[in-house]
Amino acid sequence: MTKPDYSVLVAQQREFFLSGATRPDSWRKAQLEAVKALFTENHDELCDALWKDLRRNVTDADLMDVAYCAKEADYALEHLAVWMEPHRAPMPLVFEPGHIRVRRDPLGVTLIIGAWNEPFMLTFGPLTAALAAGNTAVLKPSEVAASCAAAAARLVPKYFDPRAVAVVEGAVPETTALLEQQWDFIFFTGSPPVGKIIHQAAAKHLTPCVLELGGKNPTIVHSSAKLKVSARRIAYGRFMNSGHICTAPDHVLVWPEVKDEFVGHLIESIREFYGDDPQKSPDYGRVINRRNFDRLVGLIGSGKIAAGGKTDAAELYIAPTVLVDVSLDSPIMQEEVFGPILPVLEIESVEAVIKWVNERPSPLGLYVFAEGADVVERILDATSSGDAEVNDCAIHPLFPELPFGGVGNSGMGKYHGRWGFEAFTNARGVLYHSAKLDPGVRYPPYTKHTLERRITSALTP
Ligand code: NAD
To answer: How far is the CA of 188 from the centre of ligand 1 (A)?
Structure first.
């Protein structure tokens, strides 16, 4: 197979970017309208693709991908004028007359590489930010969600000039070839090991990047928590989209005296959501492919099954499964679960929770279920995570006002709403200095007197 070459595609986008066409707010708004139109006019086709790849029901398809992408573009349209406004501030007295200004300049030609679990959110969400900020973009959706990648490749040319937005389909060889090009910015969503490959490739050209990675999100259930509500929200966060959610609760750390009651509520919530046989529920999904199915089946033996455990390879079905009596060295505690299995472990104190979190790689999300701000704030103050939720889990990416992203091993950089606009923007400081006056205090020859005056003046706006 000949190695793909994307130099022409990148050169065309660079020429278009350098023409200045992408900078005006009118162009940006038209692109955001195009994102909105793509997702509203092709709603059913895009939901079908999600059903084919993930057996995703329409409600969740809208929540996480289809309506989500239209809403994200709408939010950007509503706020674009404020985001684009240059910040202006006065100069220190010694430099008057003049002023300083922070421009919001686009970065240029950008590459967006997505993961498969929310195939549209993870490519078109960053695309919205890229276009709002006045960039061009090449999208590389994950080959693993093949129907969604094909839908994106078919629809994007109908809504966008390829010099502004293009889709490259493919897997490792195509991504590797894309990474050989010189980009002005790379936005990657995926696993920490591949994140390191992307970061190394970006380093060759000193290309800035945002890395949206995964990890094991600890979910703490304190003895004071409202147990029924906590169990419902945790079951919802873990089992929607077959557990294929980067912000899903990965494992529960619960106080021993409430563990049995909490697990009882978890089992009840699963029955309430998906019925006695979740395999027949139209709301319950399937595992993306055989490789992940086999991996997840291998994790079920990590503890005692308190709920679920049933699997069906022919349908890639794994029942919503709760494990108890899980040992720390079992396979499920060594890797991100990323599927419909929830291990529940006991923990006895806030200090033990803090030690647990700090001894492990920084998670993408940290969730605390408790009544009483002292427990919550003590844990938040003493730990680190990309983001956090109190008395809820998994849903914070749905709020555009919140910066979304990891820290440490779960990634670098934030996006969504204004945070996405900033990620794709060069905050370019410009000092405007009038040439009409030129007092001598800044120039040599220096005296003690002029030096002191310079410092004092510079500190006085
Ligand atoms: P992945 O890292 O395997 O793949 C992500 C992308 O990288 C795909 O487009 C793939 O084609 C490409 N890729 C894979 N191997 C590559 C290689 N060797 N060289 C170059 N490119 C390569 O991740 P995934 O399996 O698609 O997604 C699951 C992971 O993503 C989980 O860890 C999950 O937590 C994480 N995730 C994070 C977020 C977030 O927003 N932080 C969102 C969703 C998923």
So the answer is: 8
Q: Which two tokens stand for residue 4?
A: 């793909």
Q: Rounded mean pLDDT of 264-283?
A: 98
> What domains sit in the chain, N to C, each tagged with a CATH number?
7-213+412-426 (3.40.605.10), 218-405 (3.40.309.10)
Q: Is the CB of 189 under 6 A from ligand 1?
A: yes
Is the pLDDT at 440 greater than 90? The verdict is no
C-alpha neighbours within 13 Å on the C-beta side of residue 423: 30
Residue nearest (by alpha carbon) to ligand 1 atom 42:
246
Can you give the pLDDT at residue 95?
82
Which of 53, 117, 289, 291 is the best mutation target for the ligand 1 pocket, counting ligand atoms within 8 Å of the beta carbon and taking the most?
Answer: 117
Question: Taking residues 417-424, what's their average pLDDT?
Answer: 98
Nearest-CA residue for ligand 1 atom 1 is 190
In the predicted model, what is the mean pLDDT of residues 219-246? 98
Q: How far is the CA of 191 from the centre of ligand 1 (A)?
A: 4
Residues belonging to the active site: 212, 246
| Cβ–Cβ < 8 Å for 340, 317 | no
Q: What is the pLDDT of residue 274?
A: 98
Residues 6 or more apart from 455 whose CB is under 8 A from it? Answer: none
Confidence class for position 94, pLDDT limits 50, 70, 90: confident
Residue 346: pLDDT above 60?
Answer: yes
Distances (CA, A) of 395 to 6, 65, 103, 290: 37, 13, 33, 27
Q: Are 421 and 129 in contact (CB under 8 A)?
A: yes
* Mean pLDDT, rounded, for 361-378: 96
